[in-house]
Amino acid sequence: MNAPELPKLVLPGDYLGAAEEFLPGRGTYENRGRIYASVLGTATVDPRDRTVHVDARNGIPEIQEGELVYARIDEIKTAMAVCTIVSTGTSRRPVPGNPEGTVHISKAREGYTESLSGEFAVGDVLVARVLQSRPSVKLSTAAATLGVVAARCQVCHALLTAGPKELHCPRCGNREHRKLAQGPRPGGPAEE
Ligand SMILES: [Zn+2]
């Protein structure tokens, strides 16, 4: 049995073959009988068992659903916060390629959130859970243990310190509110 013709470099979401013909392997996923690439990389078929797999280029790790990640907020929109995922939560493995993730306003905290800018600010570092990893990364900070782990003062950019109810700036005394992560952080103390 010959290996099928596959495009050498594939992108996440590229169709690789029918599930009746191949087995989905590493770096792929199956949806309605069709196998797709889940990572950017090189597609190959193992002729022994007809497993199609994609070797991630530059070893870009996959972000798994359910896993915790650290992300930095780049932009606050009306309905979502747009972040850059910087590392996995437990192993603190860096995530190269700077994948983007979003926190929808309904997933920022338990209950109703009037405005995301009342919970997050640009530059905050979050610990968040991955709700969906493809085609786009969707994150949640709703659980008590999830949310902001490092924030900078919006006035003077010093790192804020957590007080009993809110954050305060040791440099200029400014007080700010965030949806803070309570309890121990995955992978030990946060960077910085
Ligand atoms: Zn300040």
Name the descriptors.
OB fold (Dihydrolipoamide Acetyltransferase, E2P), mainly beta, 4-stranded mixed β-sheet, binds zinc ion, 192 residues, 5-stranded mixed barrel, 16 strands
Q: Would you write up a description of this structure?
A:
By secondary structure, the chain is an all-beta fold. Among the domains are: 9-59, OB fold (Dihydrolipoamide Acetyltransferase, E2P) (Beta Barrel), CATH 2.40.50.100; 68-147, OB fold (Dihydrolipoamide Acetyltransferase, E2P), CATH 2.40.50.140. 0% of the residues lie in helices and 38% in strands. It has no helices and 16 strands. The protein has strands spanning 9-10, 15-18, 23-24, 28-31, 34-37, 41-46, 51-56, 68-76, 80-88, 100-104, 125-132, 137-140, 147-150, 161-162, 167-168, 175-176. The strands form four sheets. A five-stranded mixed barrel has the order 8-9-10-12-11. Strand 14 (161-162) and strand 15 form a beta hairpin. The protein starts with 8 loop residues before the first strand and ends in a 16-residue tail after the last strand. 30% of the residues are buried. Zinc ion is lined by residues 153, 155-156, 158, 169, 171-172, 174.
Question: Mean pLDDT, nearest integer?
Answer: 87
> Which fold name is given in CATH as the topology of the domain at 68-147?
OB fold (Dihydrolipoamide Acetyltransferase, E2P)
CATH superfamily placement of the domain at 68-147: Nucleic acid-binding proteins
Structural class: mainly beta
